[in-house]
Amino acid sequence: MLKCEAWTDDETSAVRSNILTLNVAYPPQKPVIIGFTDGEKYSLIESEFGNLSCSSHGGNPLANLTWNCYNSKPASITTEDKTVFSTVTWSGFRGQSSCLCISHHSWSGTTQTTTVMIDVLYPPNKPTMTISNKTVSNVINVILSKTVQVKCESKSNPRSNYTWTGPADLSKTKQILDVTINNTIDKMFKCIATNRMVRQNGTHVDGHNESAVTIKVLYPPWNPYFKYEYSNGTKVSTQNMIDVIEGDSFSVHCNASGNPLPTYKWDSYDDNGILKITSISYDTNKSCNASNVMEETVGERRTGSTSASFFFIRVLHAPYIPTITISNGTRQLNIAAATIQLRETDNINMTCFSEGKPLPKYIWDSHNDQIQGRIRQFTNISRKDAGNYTCYASNRMKRTFGDFEQGLNVSSLSLEIMYPSTLLSLDDISILEGSDLKVKCRVQKGNRTKDSLSWTRISDDKNWQNSQLIITNVSRADDTKYTCTLRSTVIPTIGDETLTIRSKTIHLNVFFSSEIKHFTVIKNKSSGTFIVNQTDEVSLECIAEANTASNLSIYNKRGKRISTVINRNVLLYSIHNASYENAGKYKCEGRNNYTKDKPSVSELTIIVKCSPRPSLDSILPNKIAVFQYTNKTLNFVAYEYLDEENKTEFMWFHKNIAIERNDE
Questions:
Q1: What is the DSSP letter of 220?
Q2: Which of 194, 218, 242 lies at the terminal end of a domain, its last residue?
Q3: Which of 316, 341, 370 is the last residue of a domain?
Q4: Are 114 and 38 in contact (CB under 8 A)?
């Protein structure tokens, strides 16, 4: 607006012209966002409303104000004096970077802009995990014994702070977690992202978000274990062995702990880990291998396998038919025969053995007597031990899984006791000379023996290989002892052949008539006629051979019995101080019960040397009357045996004159 005034020095006299309005167009000042300098940051929390006021001062005409703010509502425009105000409201959103207040001057065509940098604050997004810059899911596969670095990342404004929590009260304020896998337990870790969002007005809100990650531990299979019948069945003991009974059918499942789950092979055959056994008959040892492929989420791919685990199947069975062994301390013999023969008085062990699983228990049964144990002992075995013996072998078969069964088998044998034959009693035999002898050696038969009999005459070792002693026309020379010998041989089932020799001796008493065998003068070597000296001591000995013993008598020359003995075969008679009266013939006569007719007689002559003398039977009369011229014979008998025969001389004297010599 313009007006012209004129005045003089006296202002009171001023003259004014009409007012002339001058409309001068000029641009406004640069718009100002109230409270912010150009390019300054404005902080607000996402989804909250922001509010900015922009003013443009001056300018003709006044500037038109507009806003360039994302998702803003229509601005309100007010004018005060030469200032235009515009207020805008908008909802903060992630990614919004600025809000522009734009002044446009239509007359000059100028455009001016003032910017506020919008800092939209927002809490952490749900964290994501990366390994080696590769995003991973909430499950991470890692091989046992390895170390893995997991990075937690979350978008937020302002930037997040990170805290890891996990097993054993783990709490680490760091973005990257180092985890060493030292066992097979899966581990869950939680990453917590936080920030503090401070509004422009200074108030704040704490932002929070979290994600969990599970580390699945990959590990190779451990040594397999086994389950009976079903995969979820009863686990076999740590010995990896089961007991079954012969003929059983069953299945065994191979299992192993591993991640991922293993695959299985029984003895190199793919069979899904199932071992199927049909009608088993013998012990067997099977091996199972387990393997898996371990593939890490980020990292390597590795095959894991185990060494073979062995599974032993022990087949229980009832005892087989027992075998029986006998032994005598030096030898042992397996018995196949139904009957065994043993020597009486032997020491024997009978041992029963049977194969069975479990090992059998044994009972020996005989004579209604039962003995526990494998061995039946016989000390000094006797005949009463003969009989039938049965060995029972039994066991109790208990399946590892299932019922038990009782096993039983038996073997029997018959025991024979061998003993040698014996001789029955034999009595002495008396027989009459000239008879025939027949004597049988009587035997009590042993058991299972081979016997032979013989007779031996002791006096000359003559032998009869027979059970009978036969002698024809027995003589007194046969009167002696005879031995019957029994050779009894035992051949047992076990042990050496044994020969038992038994004998009995008898005396053969041969009766015969008495016979004088010797009639002599003791200590005189003569025979028949014995010359002794007068006064000598003369002993006569008469020896007879007789059975029964003789009745012996000695007679002198007059037939007088001068000595006798009963039941003896020797008779001694002594002449003390021999004289002519003892000279002469002597006779020894013997007889016994078997002297039938005449006794046996033996004679001897004793000559006693002494002067001649008339016989007691020859006594001459003092006078002899004869007729004249007739013959008369005179006899003179001298005492006999006063000298050797033909040594006695006779001389007749007549009136002391020798008249005749006659030696008769």
A1: P
A2: 218
A3: 316
A4: yes
The reply to whether 68 falls in a domain is yes
Q: What is the pLDDT of residues 449-477, one digit of tens each?
A: 999 999 999 999 999 999 999 999 999 89
Give how many domains the chain has, as a whole number: 7
Q: What φ, ψ does residue 68 adopt, rounded to 5°?
A: -120, 80
Nearest to 253 by CA among 223, 274, 277: 274
The alpha carbon dihedral of 639, 645, 649, 652 has a sign of positive
- What are the CB-based long-range contacts (under 8 Å, 24+) for 426-429? 426/484, 426/504, 426/505, 426/506, 427/506, 428/506, 428/507, 428/508, 428/509, 429/506, 429/507, 429/508, 429/509
Please report whether residue 8 resides in a domain: no
From residue 540, give the alpha-carbon distance in Å to each of 107, 282, 410: 214, 105, 88
Contact 183, 217 (CB under 8 A): yes
Positions of E strands within 433-480:
437-440, 443-444, 449-457, 462-464, 468-471
- 597, β-bridge pairs: none
Indicate whether 403 belongs to any domain: no
Q: pTM here?
A: 0.55
635 in a structural domain: yes
pLDDT band at 664 (very low <50, low <70, confident <90, very high): very low
Place of tokens 């078997």: 594
Residue-range definition of the domain harbouring residue 435: 422-509
- Asked if 197 contacts 123 with a C-beta cutoff of 8 angstroms, the reply is yes
- Residue listed under structure tokens 């007549």: 654
Residue 174, H or E segment: none
